[in-house]
Amino acid sequence: MRAAVLTATNTLVIEERPMPVRGEDEVILRVRAAGICGSDLPRVFAGKVYHFPLVLGHEFAGEVVDAADPALIGTRAAIFPLLPCRKCAMCAEEEYPLCADYDYYGSRRDGAMEEYLAVKIWNLIPVPEGLSLEEAAMCEPAAVARHAIMRAGISGGERVLVFGAGPIGLMLGQWAMSMGAASVAFADIDERKLVFAETMGFGRQTEGAKYDVVIEGAGAPSALQGAIAAAEPFGRLVLMGNASRDMDIPQAVYQQILRKQLTLTGTWNSSYNSRVNDWKAALEAMASGALSAKPLITHTYPLEEVRAAFDMMGGREAFYNKVMIVM
Length: 327
Ligand SMILES: [Zn+2]
Ligand SMILES: [Zn+2]
Hints:
- The protein is an alpha/beta fold.
- It has two domains: about 1-140 and about 295-325, Quinone Oxidoreductase, Chain A, domain 1 (Alpha-Beta Complex), CATH 3.90.180; about 145-265, Rossmann fold (3-Layer(aba) Sandwich), CATH 3.40.50.
- Helices cover about 25% and strands about 30% of the residues.
- Strands 3, 4, 5, 8, 9, 16 and 17 form a seven-stranded mixed sheet that branches.
- One zinc ion (ZN) binds near residues 37, 39, 58, 59 and 140.
């Protein structure tokens, strides 16, 4: 079987590899779709990985082709990519993304940019009928967005502002509207992303306007400062974007947090437990039409062209939203 292997910084090669062997608690998944995440770009271009060689791909879906339980064969599934240690305090609480010693498909261990992958049965999320596996591969950004919006707590009628109109941002906007927000506006340094957000029915940040809920999804100090400034008194600010550098705040902006008595909330990954399962909720929302993932997939590439996919994204010349490898 073929695999796209990151063998060194900026070196992606298609290799022929033996078929994976499944453990007792695993099935063999024929990968059909694997999204490229923004977090994969520094892995490729800056070599920010745990080890080489590494097969990327943590946003994926496929079909079970081999399993000990025959009932599982043929199951179409999205995959929760985190493998918890099940020994730490957070695992005892089922707060797996906070696990002290987790493993992860596509970052700490090989992921989905290969034709077949052995995955744990616990990590399979069955895909409802009528939903494509490309859409199902959008489950990760959809779940992350849902988690963030739950942290914000939409009760109805809120004016929402989101910094960052990428795949997670646009999912966030859809979740907010489905939960009763009055409006969702976007801010982004890339004009093309704002135009794209408008095609999905969202607005743009209005100069001087104040918002009840502001989500910072860009991870840049300018966005954080803009988010604080744009929040209404007693507004809620959710910090979601991974910080690309020190998130400095000028004194006068900082003071606004105090004077406006803002509520600041962090959000991390998603929930995948018996109380809250953002992943199942994401697939259900896609199946019901509350969440539409398809328009966000602007580019698809076959596995052999994984290099071209990364180059397109790294070059930042073409507009893209979600770029996906399909097999
Ligand atoms: Zn991702
Ligand atoms: Zn743990």
